[in-house]
C-alpha cells in the first residue's frame, strides 16, 4: 500500500528530536510538507527541515506559555497557507517527588499540564476553527500507556496530562465529526528517546525491558508509520480511537 501525502501540510509539535522527529521524517517521505516545531533545539529543527525537504520549515515556540501555541499556529498558517493535519506530539516528563515542597510540586504539575495538555488544547482549538472553514482536517495526538495504567508516583502529573489528552481527542471526534474533523490518539509505551533517558537513568533500562513482552525497547521509528496511516485518511472511520503501541505492556 502506497500512502501519498503530496499537497498535505502537517504541523508536528516537538519535532526536533525523539518520536516527533521520526514522525516528521516519515510524513515527509510520503510527500507531506512538515512544519517542524521546536522549543530550544533550533539548529536540529532547521537541519531536519532541510533534510526532509518538500518545503518543510522549522518553527520555534515555547509551549510552556499561553501565547506560545497561538503564535505557533499563526506562524504556520501564515507561512503554509493551510494546515490539513495537526500532530500534537510535544511533551515533558518531570520527575517530582510527592514529598517535595508543595509550591515546587505544584509548579512541576502546572508546567507539565501546560506543555502536555493545555498547549495541545489551544492548538486543537485553532485547528478546529481552521478545519471548519476548509471542510475538515485531522488531529493526531500522542498520549501514553500511562493514561490508562498510570505511572510511578513521581510521574503522576505526566500520567494525568496524558489521560486528559485522550478525553480531549475523543471529545473532538464526537463533537466535530460531522464537520469532517477526525481525531485520533496514539498511546506509546516506553520508547527510547532523550526524554525517556531521565527515567532510565533513575530506574535502569532493565526496569523498562521487564515491563514489556518484546525483547527490545520501542524506538521512535516503530511509532511513526501509524501516524502516517492516520494522516492519510485511510483510517477516518477509526476517529475517536486510541491505538496502543506499547510492546505488549498490557498483556505481559
Automatic annotation (TrEMBL):
- MF annotations from Gene Ontology: 3-oxoacyl-[acyl-carrier-protein] reductase (NADPH) activity
- Read off the InterPro entries from this record: NAD(P)-bd_dom_sf, SDR_fam
For this UniProt record, give its keywords in alphabetical order, as a comma-separated list: Oxidoreductase
Supply the Pfam families for this chain.
adh_short_C2
Q: Which CDD domains match?
A: SDR_c
Superkingdom of origin: Bacteria
Q: Report the PANTHER family cross-referenced here.
A: 3-OXOACYL-[ACYL-CARRIER-PROTEIN] REDUCTASE, CHLOROPLASTIC, SHORT-CHAIN DEHYDROGENASES/REDUCTASES FAMILY MEMBER
Its family remark reads: Belongs to the short-chain dehydrogenases/reductases (SDR) family.
Q: What is this protein called?
A: 3-oxoacyl-[acyl-carrier-protein] reductase FabG
* Recorded name of the encoding gene: fabG_4
Amino acid at each position: 500500500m502506497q500512502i501519498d501525502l503530496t499537497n498535505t501540510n502537517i504541523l508536528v509539535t516537538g519535532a526536533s528530536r525523539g518520536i516527533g522527529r521520526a514522525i516528521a521524517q516519515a510524513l515527509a517521505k510520503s510527500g507531506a510538507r512538515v512544519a517542524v516545531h521546536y522549543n530550544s533545539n533550533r539548529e536540529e529543527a532547521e537541519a531536519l527541515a532541510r533534510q526532509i525537504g518538500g518545503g518543510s520549515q522549522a518553527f520555534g515556540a515555547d509551549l510552556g506559555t499561553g501565547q506560545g501555541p497561538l503564535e505557533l499556529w499563526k506562524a504556520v498558517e501564515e507561512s503554509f497557507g493551510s494546515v490539513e493535519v495537526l500532530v500534537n506530539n510535544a511533551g515533558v516528563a518531570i520527575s517530582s517527588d510527592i514529598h517535595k515542597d508543595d509550591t515546587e510540586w505544584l509548579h512541576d504539575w502546572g508546567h507539565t499540564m501546560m506543555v502536555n495538555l493545555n498547549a495541545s488544547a489551544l492548538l486543537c482549538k485553532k485547528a478546529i476553527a481552521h478545519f471548519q472553514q476548509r471542510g475538515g482536517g485531522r488531529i493526531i495526538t500522542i498520549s501514553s500507556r500511562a493514561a490508562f495504567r498510570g505511572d510511578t508516583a513521581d510521574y503522576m502529573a505526566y500520567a494525568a496530562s496524558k489521560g486528559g489528552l485522550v478525553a480531549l481527542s475523543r471529545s473532538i471526534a464526537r463533537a466535530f465529526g460531522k464537520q469532517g474533523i477526525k481525531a485520533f490518539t496514539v498511546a506509546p509505551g516506553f520508547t527510547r528517546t532523550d526524554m525517556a533517558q531521565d527515567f532510565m537513568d533513575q530506574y535502569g533500562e532493565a526496569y523498562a525491558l521487564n515491563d514489556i513482552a518484546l525483547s527490545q525497547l520501542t524506538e521512535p521509528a516503530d511509532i511513526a508509520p501509524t501516524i502516517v496511516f492516520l494522516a492519510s485518511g485511510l483510517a477516518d472511520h477509526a476517529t475517536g480511537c486510541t491505538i496502543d503501541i506499547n510492546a505488549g505492556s498490557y498483556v505481559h
